[in-house]
ATP-dependent zinc metalloprotease FtsH (Dehalogenimonas alkenigignens), 650 residues
Amino acid sequence: MKFNWKRTTIAYVVMLVASIIIFAILLPNTQDQPEEVAQSVLVAETQANNVSEITVEGERIDFITRDNPPRELFTYKEQLTSIYDIPGIDLSSVAEVNIKGSSGFDWGSILINLIPILFIGGMIIFLFSQARGANNQAMSFGRSRAKLFNVDKPTTTFENVAGVDEAKQEVQEIVEFLKSREKFQALGARIPKGVLLIGYPGTGKTLLARAIAGEAGVPFFSISGSEFVEMFVGVGASRVRDLFEQAKRNAPCIIFIDEIDAVGRQRGAGLGGSHDEREQTLNQILVEMDGFEANTTIIVIAATNRPDVLDPALLRPGRFDRRVVLDMPDLNGRLAILKIHAKGKPLADDVNLENLAKQTIGFSGADLSNLMNEAAILAARADKKAVEMSDLEESIDRVIAGPERKSRKVSAHEKEITAYHEAGHALVARMLPHADPVHKITIVARGMAGGYTKQLPAEDRYIATDSQFKAKIAISMGGRIAEEIMFGEMSTGASQDFKEATNLAKKMVTSYGMSEKLGPRTFGSKEEMVFLGKEIHEQRDYGEKTADLIDQEVESIIQTAYQTARTILVDNKARLQYIAEHLMAEETLEGDGLEKLFTEPLPPPGSPPPAAPAAVKTIEPAVEKQAEPTLKAKEKPAEPGTAAPGFAPA
């Protein structure tokens, strides 16, 4: 029960106003009210010829004296006695005697006397109703908070879902069963009782569940895993029972539990009350899912991005029979998602969604939706009639690195250091055959970075080689080496580069078995959040000697990559300076203009540096394997490479 603050406030205001009115009626006004006196006073005043007017109504006698000023007095007589029969009274000098008939009941007095009683009674009734509402509110903790969606007006169908074709095919069988279950039952088939949607954040798990409800046309109960557990013991289990009772009354139907890992974690030793309450809730879910009748038409769909922490009893056949994995979309999937989110947005003629899909490798469906929305916002901010490709390119940078920090004031010297730093990354990446093509270089500050170099692979990649890893490490070293060559000193701009390079080299040795000395084996037992990429705990299962060998191998990989990058930059110092000068003048280099800087002949020594503003830049992504540039090298560099799209951060 939801507490209605508005209604309660109005009730209290009405009670306050009524109280004021009642007290105003009942509060005696001593200036206007006549004074009550004994009957003997009336007799004495009439005998003294001091009464000008008498009014008799029932047993009450009101009279006015001839005093200056006149006084209003009243007294009472016996019920059956006439005023003329009062002993000693002299009415001969009274100017006016008014005798009114008795009204039987004084309704005004009765009403005035009843008002306080009615008011107090109303207050008691109101307070009891409030207490009963509070009690109902306390008891409602045990009721399910699942939301029932309107199936008559579906807002999401399979047409709104793209990039997960295999997952759609898996869940379409669920929809078909709900629509025509007799076909399955005739063949003795048993539909899965539960479907577990597994995938990275933003890949469309909740969207797919909503699409199932829209296609099936059956009641759809939606609840989050965290809504089961409260501060009161037993509330979670009660809510589970109430949810499944509602589902049975509305069968056939679908129950969708989002983020089930909040309540479905693997049970432990029961230490701590909160864990005990969560485990009671999980036990009730297990009982309810296993207690369905044969051929039930209640299907439970759950979503999580942490399947590694779920209790094994929850994953066994008979509960969640089917697991549907939603991976990051490939090129065709990203193109389909972009087309869906482009609906309703006017696009300019220069927009090429296929090129945009090539530039967004590693983006989830939620990232692509945000990208299109950001582009529309940028176009609206600039008062444009349509979304242009430049808006989409800018939104990519905003999604990845954050908005431009235009208010950030950078000195000329720091700008020069950043330009050489990013040019070093780009030049090393351009020289290494196993590195991804360089798509863009910028020294415009975004987020926490002073600039960045963006690389894009020529195609989607699902595995990585040691050559690609070594190339990525060498590219990370390129920024610091360029600073050392040109300025003879080191800055703090490469700290994140070294962190990523060290982590990657360590994984090559301890996780991927890419060490010649240690061989194809792994070291350390790790517990990780699989889909979130977070390492929780590592158990060391090797000795000190092996630990020293691991450190030596990591050091060897990093030093080899460092020397490779240094050789490239020392032998091509003039090219490095040429690129950095253009970068300082234009701030951003990309597309054909960037490729030209790598391949065109260098200007003669002593030529003036390029001047701003920058030339017009193209936005066609450089995703094809680049031709070998006209760079010189004293020795062929090692053939390392990179594993995935990304940046060589500043």
DSSP finds 19 helices and 17 strands in the chain. Residues 421 and 479 are 4 Å apart (CA to CA). The first strand starts at residue 35 and ends at 36.
